[in-house]
Specification:
The structure is a homodimer. The first copy, chain A, is of the alpha/beta class. Chain A has one domain: Amidase signature (AS) domain (Amidase signature (AS) enzymes, Alpha-Beta Complex), CATH 3.90.1300.
C-alpha cells in the first residue's frame, strides 16, 4: 500500500481534500476497506463491516456539497451503540444478530454531520470487565489494544478508519488511545448524549471519539457542539502554563508512562512552556476506590436485567457484580458519591490555574496477551471528576509500542483544552511518521 | 361496576389473592380491560392497549406458580420506555409506529417478576415540557392529571390498572400521584436502570412506579431489589420522628397543599408521632434555579439528535432548548452541579435525624385545563438531591380533587422509608374509600 493511500490521511486532511474536490468520499472509503481487507484478519478490530452500504453512502455524499464537518469521513462505532442498519451485539453471546430500529444519538449526530458508518467495532462485553474483544494491538498482535473500546482503538491506530467512537466508564477510551498511538477526546461528562448507548453508570459513562490528530477530534467536537466550540483559539506554545500531575497513583507508572511524561515535559520546556508540578490534595488518593465502588454499584443495577434474561450464560464477572460480590454497600456508595462531588469542584479550581494539566494516559505500553485490557488507574479519577481529557501520542516504549499522555482541564472547558492540545500536538507528538512507517510495513 | 370488581383491588391485594388461588390473573386483567373500555374514552390514559396479548400472558401466568412479587399483576408503561411488543412513540408526532426490538430494562425486570404489560400510557412528549398528553384527571375531566407521567397517573388513579411506571426529571412522577389520589415511589437516583428509557438528564431522570398502597410500591421495590429491601420493618406510628419541611418554596403552596400538609400533621400527632419543623439552610432556596439550569442544559444535549432529525416539526419548546434559548452557560451549569453536589450531603445529614421528612407533593389540586401539567416547584429539589420520595394521598381539596404529600429520606434509605410509609399510610390516607366511591360513580 503506497504512502499516499487515503486511508493514511487524518480525518481533517481527508475532510479538507473532499471539500477542495481533490478526494472523493468513495475513494477514501474504498481505501479504508482495502486496508481492512488486508489487515483485519490479523487485527480483528471489527465485528461487522458493510462495504456495499458504506460505498453507496459515500457516493451519495459525493453528489452533494458538504453540509457538516465530517462530510464523507468514515467512522467506526463501538458495538455497545445502537445502529438501525447494522447489528448491535454488545459483544455478548446472548445478543448476536440483535438489530435495534433506531441509531444511538451519537451515531445519528455524526451521520448528520456527514460521516459514514463503516461498521461496528469489537468491545469488551457490555464495556464492563467481562468477555474480552478479539482485537489485537496493531503494533504487535500478541498485545492487547486496550479496552473496552478495543476495536475502535485498534482500527483507528491501524489506519483502517479515520475516526471511531469509544466510551469510558473507567479507562476504556483514553487508555486504548495511548496503546494504539492515536488521539482521543473524552469530553466533559454530560456534553454528549448517551441515548442508545448501553449503560453501566449514569455518573461515569462518557462517549468519546478517536482520531489521528487534534484537528480530527475538533471535527467531532463541532458535530457535537461541545461547549464554546466556536471559540477555538491558536495559542503559542511559548508561555503556556502546564500543570504536571503524576496523580496519587504514580507508583503504578511503568517505564512507558514515565518515558511519555518525561519526554512530554522536556519537549514542552524546549518549546517555551512553563511546567509546574501539581500535587493533588491527599483525599484525591481515595478517588480510585470511590470510582470502583460506584462502577460496581451502578454496574450491579445496570446489568440486573441481563442477569434475569441470561443468567445461565452470563459471564462470571457480570454475575458476581449483580449478585453483590463486589462488596458494595449503600453507605460506601454514598461516601463514594460524596467524595467525588467534593473533589470535582476542588479539581476545577486547581486546573483553572493552568492552560492544561498533563497526566499519564496509561500505566505504560499495552500489556502482552488478550486476557487483559490494561489498568484503568490513571483514568478512573478523571472519569469520576467529569473533566475533559485529550490523549496525545508521546513515545514508543521499550517494546516499540506507543504510549500517550493526556491533557486534562476543568469541567466544560473542552474548547479551551482542544485549542491548547492543537498547539501542543506538534510539540509532544514527534513520532507520527515513525508510527505510520511501522504500520505501513506491517 | 360492582364494588368487588378486581380492578378496584390494590396490587398487593390482587397478588395475594392470586397467590392464594382465589383470583386468576386472567380475571383481573379482564376486569381492568373492562374498566378501560368503559372509562378510557373519557380519561384517555392510554396510547396503546393490547387486550389479546395481555389475556394470553395472563393465562400463561395462571398455569404456573408465582415466581415473582408481581405475578399476574397488570402494569402500565409510560410511552418513553421501549417495549419489544408494542409501539414506543414518546408521544412525538415524528415517532408514531416506532417499534424497538428490545424492552427497556425496567419493563423487562417487572415482566420477570410476573407483571403483565397492559399497554403504553400517554406522556408529555419526550417527558420534557412540550406536547401535552391527551389524558384527563379521572376526578374531573376538565383538569389535568399532571405530567409528564400523565397517562400512568390517570390510569392507576382511575382503577384501570394496578401499577404503572412514571419517570421524574422535574416533578413528573410525584406530582401526578398527588393529583390522581395514588401512591408513588421515586426511588433513590441510581437504583433502577434507565436502559431503554428516553433520556433528558443523566443526573435527574429517575424511573418510579405508581400503586394504590405502600404495599403496592413494595412489590415493585422487591422486583427492583432496592437497597436493603429485605430489611423492611413495621414500626409503630407512636414515637416516630417526622421532620415537617415546607421547603424554601412554601410561598407557592396553594390551599390544597396547605390542607394536605396540615391534615397530615394533625393525623400524625394524633397517632403519637413527633413532629419537628425542618428549616433547610438558606442556599437550598437556589436549588430550584439550579435544577432548571441542569434540566435545560442537559435537555439541550439530549434533544439535539431530535432537532437534527425533525427540526421542522419539532415542538417550539424543544427547539428553544436545543437552540440555547434557555440561558444556559457552562459557568451557570457547573455552579448548578456544584450546589446540588454540596446540598446532597447536607440534606442526608439533616434527614438522618428523622424517621421521615414530610413535604408537599404538589402546589395543590390539579389545575384546570390540559394546557398545563402543574408546577414542579415542590419536586425539582428532591429530584436533584437524589432522595427517595414516597407520595401518599392526604385530602380532597376544595374542588374535590385529591392532594397528596410526600415522605422523603436520605439517599439509598428506600427500604426504611417504605417501612415508615407503610405505617403512616393508615394514619395519613383516611380517604381511600371516598376516592373509590367517587370514581366508581364516575
Amino acid at each position: 500500500m503506497s504512502k499516499t493511500e487515503p486511508c493514511f490521511l487524518t480525518a481533517a486532511e481527508a475532510a479538507a481534500a473532499i471539500r477542495a474536490g481533490t478526494l472523493t468520499s468513495e475513494t477514501l472509503i474504498r481505501s479504508c476497506l482495502e486496508r481492512i481487507a488486508a489487515r483485519d484478519p490479523a487485527v480483528r478490530a471489527w465485528l461487522h463491516v458493510d462495504p456495499e452500504l458504506a460505498i453507496r453512502q459515500a457516493r451519495e455524499r459525493d453528489k452533494r456539497p458538504p453540509t457538516g464537518p465530517l462530510h464523507g469521513i468514515p467512522f467506526g462505532v463501538k458495538d455497545i451503540m445502537d445502529t438501525a442498519d447494522m447489528p448491535t451485539t454488545y459483544n455478548s453471546p446472548d445478543w448476536q444478530g440483535h438489530r435495534p430500529t433506531r441509531d444511538a444519538a451519537c451515531v445519528s449526530i455524526v451521520r448528520h454531520s456527514g460521516a459514514i458508518i463503516l461498521g461496528k467495532t469489537d468491545t469488551v462485553e457490555f464495556a464492563y470487565n467481562s468477555r474480552k474483544a478479539a482485537s489485537r494491538n496493531p503494533y504487535n498482535l500478541a498485545h492487547t489494544p486496550g479496552g473496552s473500546s478495543s476495536g475502535s482503538g485498534a482500527a483507528v491506530g491501524d489506519f483502517q478508519v479515520q475516526c471511531a467512537f469509544g466510551t469510558q466508564t473507567a479507562g476504556s477510551h483514553i487508555r486504548p488511545a495511548s496503546f494504539n498511538g492515536i488521539y482521543a477526546i473524552k469530553p466533559s461528562w454530560g456534553t454528549v448524549s448517551r441515548e442508545g448507548v448501553h449503560m453501566i453508570s449514569a455518573i461515569l459513562d462518557t462517549v468519546g471519539w478517536y482520531g489521528r490528530s487534534v484537528d480530527d477530534l475538533i471535527l467531532g467536537a463541532q458535530a457535537f457542539r461541545l461547549p464554546a466550540i466556536e471559540t477555538l483559539t491558536a495559542p503559542a506554545a511559548a508561555g503556556l502554563r502546564i500543570g504536571y500531575c503524576e496523580t496519587p497513583f504514580w507508583a503504578k507508572a511503568e517505564a512507558g508512562a514515565k518515558a511519555a511524561m518525561a519526554a512530554s515535559v522536556e519537549r514542552l520546556r524546549r518549546a517555551g512552556a512553563i511546567i509546574e508540578e501539581i500535587v493533588l490534595p491527599a483525599h484525591f488518593a481515595d478517588l480510585s476506590e470511590a470510582h470502583t465502588m460506584i462502577m460496581f454499584g451502578d454496574g450491579g443495577v445496570a446489568l440486573y436485567d441481563e442477569y434475569l434474561r441470561h443468567r445461565s450464560t452470563l459471564h462470571p464477572e457480570l454475575r458476581l457484580t449483580v449478585e453483590g460480590g463486589r462488596g458494595v454497600t449503600p453507605e460506601k456508595l454514598v461516601a463514594a458519591y460524596d467524595l467525588a462531588d467534593a473533589c470535582r469542584k476542588e479539581f476545577d479550581a486547581i486546573a483553572s490555574g493552568y492552560d492544561a494539566v498533563l497526566a499519564p494516559a496509561s500505566t505504560g505500553e499495552a500489556p502482552k496477551g488478550l486476557h487483559t485490557v490494561g489498568d484503568w488507574i490513571f483514568n478512573g479519577l478523571w472519569t469520576l471528576l467529569h473533566t475533559p481529557c485529550v490523549a496525545i501520542p508521546a513515545v514508543l516504549g521499550e517494546q516499540r509500542l506507543p504510549v500517550g499522555i493526556q491533557l486534562v482541564g476543568p469541567r466544560l472547558s473542552d474548547a479551551r483544552l482542544l485549542s491548547v492540545a492543537r498547539t501542543l500536538q506538534t510539540v509532544i507528538d514527534t513520532g507520527a511518521e515513525e508510527r505510520a512507517a511501522i504500520l505501513r510495513a506491517a
